[in-house]
Specification:
alpha/beta, globular, 35% helix, 2 domains
């Protein structure tokens, strides 16, 4: 006798263009197989469901699939997501527990993963940190940080967003408003920051 009757995974991204199937369509096909076939004795692993479409459609699909697995299938599930709203929706749901990959944030927003899977929600996203480490110009990073802050306020999220006016930023919001379009000097990718580390991702795991 095995511990699980089947193991289902929805991981990675691939398309089947010759069959007329986009990456998102293939993702949905794999999800359909899980929803229709998984039993209470199955193990389900789902990674970043809903990223191939608009934010709200993707979030809605991820929410519904997770709710189905929790309430109807009731199988052991590892559901990795970048949707912080999803964490909020299932925060008080019985049998649902949040975990994330621990990391440390050092000077100049350098992020290092500690390779520890710990309990609790991921405190913030690190997309801007990755963009900075990859070498995007500070003007672009600051503009992105400002836009991220706008979205956070509009959606009333609990996510912590790096301030665009902190002392480590070269440009303030007033600098951005007065900047003319032109050629931006690209920074060299800071590849040494990635040596022996995983690239930070804005994800938090949920274990059912």
């Amino acid at each position: 006798m095995t511990v699980f009757d089947r193991v289902f995974t929805r991981i990675g991204a691939s398309d089947r263009i010759l069959e007329g199937k986009s990456t998102f369509f293939v993702e949905m096909e794999e999800t359909v197989n899980i929803v229709k076939t998984a039993t209470r004795k199955s193990l389900v692993i789902i990674d970043e469901l809903g990223r191939g479409t608009s934010t709200f459609d993707g979030y809605s699909i991820a929410n519904s699939v997770l709710r189905y697995l929790v309430r109807r299938t009731k199988c052991l599930t590892l559901f990795a997501t970048h949707y912080h709203m999803l964490l909020q929706d299932f925060r008080e749901t019985p049998r649902v527990h949040s975990y994330h990959m621990a990391c440390s944030q050092e000077a100049h927003d350098q992020v290092t993963f500690l390779y520890k899977f710990i309990k609790g929600e991921c405190p913030k996203s690190f997309g801007l940190n990755v963009a900075r480490m990859a070498g995007l110009p500070k003007w672009v990073i600051n503009r992105a940080a400002h836009k991220s802050l706008e979205f956070t306020k509009q959606l009333n999220l609990d996510e912590v967003v790096t301030s665009i006016n902190n002392k480590d930023n070269e440009y303030s919001l007033s600098d951005l408003e007065g900047e003319e379009e032109g050629v931006l000097e690209m920074q060299e990718p800071q590849s040494e920051h990635f040596q022996g580390q995983e690239i930070p991702v804005e994800a938090a795991g949920m274990v059912l």
